[in-house]
Amino acid sequence: MGKPSGTASSRRGFLAAAGLTAAGAALALTQGSAGAAPSRRTAATASRVPAEDVRHARTWMAWPDSTSIWGRGTLGGVQSDIALIARTIARYEPVVMCANSGSAATARSLCGSAVTVITSIPVDDCWMRDTGPVFRTDGAGGLDAVGLNFNGWGNKQTHAKDARVAERVADYAGMPFAYADFTGEGGAIEQDGSGTLMATRSSLLNRNRNSGLSQQQLEAAMCDAYGASEVIWFDGVKGQDITDDHVDATSRFLAPGGALVQMPLASDNDAFAKDARKQYQALTQATTASGRPMGVQTLQGPDYGRIRSTNPDFLASYANFYVCNDAVVCGQFGDTRADAAAKAALAGLYPGRVVEQLDIDRLGTGGGGIHCVTQQQPLP
């Protein structure tokens, strides 16, 4: 998830207090031997999470229906944005929407017949990037899935259903599943598919997720789960949004040896703007798992004074785009010059793909974007 307009408030405002839960109130998950460093997989032999731009079998999404989380005045607009995203992606690849039985009819009505709505995987909220499994390929036609032990971003939100989503998605897809030896979310980790990860310490090296792990142990567990061998760390921003600064709103991999950072305006000096500049500097000095220098592209963020929303927690992240089969789906926020420049930049970075730019302002008021609510299942 992304950045606010320069206030110290949360990007999602931690949503509604009624949606919060005390630590440990949600379903407990087994995380393996959290105090011990697991053996690191070697990129040459292990299954790995591929880059996002490989061909997909389908996209997984989740249907929000909780007024205690979203509020009665906001929920309908968020549902409309989720439906718009789902219908758009469904023009390029299959979409499976997980919905609770009581709201499935609404989901089907808004999403249309091109989106498959199922009720066998109950959900608390819509953030499938964080709650769903990460899928791995073995290079020989096999797939498996890994769950990241979702705990409501450090027990900040109710998540008893969402804690089971990863396992249930894997079961529905009919593939082997295991839990990773750390706690985190899919939006907290970017992978290039060739052995390199990037993440923020503020989100993952945080006692609300991984209090028993040192950075070395956490890094080894991440590499084991993703089939990687190198982690590029950013400091991030702790405690100012529900995710503790997910990397996928600011920095993304474009390819092995290539990354993109959404940059703030020169006049922006809030914590997230400063963090973005630090991420850019870190990447320009980083190398990949194979030892290649990292090539870094920049994507100019919008002027928060020119976007449609005046909500201080609004996320206006072009970098939170989603790559699906033959398309790139990203947000547009009302700063027409920046919107057009972002669309042109993504078209240049992903030649041969249609760039679909959507008004997702209702979702943005919750601090999330298109990448946050999607999870790709690659072809074997």
UniProtKB/TrEMBL annotation:
- One Pfam family this chain carries? PAD_porph
The GO terms this record gives for MF are: agmatine deiminase activity; protein-arginine deiminase activity
State the protein's name.
Answer: Peptide ABC transporter permease
Q: Note the InterPro entries from the entry.
A: Peptidyl-Arg-deiminase_porph, TAT_signal
State the organism of origin. Answer: Streptomyces yokosukanensis
Sorted alphabetically, the Gene Ontology BP terms of this entry are: putrescine biosynthetic process
> Which PANTHER family did the record assign?
AGMATINE DEIMINASE-RELATED
* UniProt-listed PROSITE patterns: TAT
Please give the SUPFAM superfamilies that the UniProt record associates with this protein: Pentein
* Signal sequence region: 1-28
Task: Name the keywords, alphabetized.
Answer: Hydrolase, Signal
Any keyword Ribosomal protein?
Answer: no
This protein's superkingdom? Bacteria
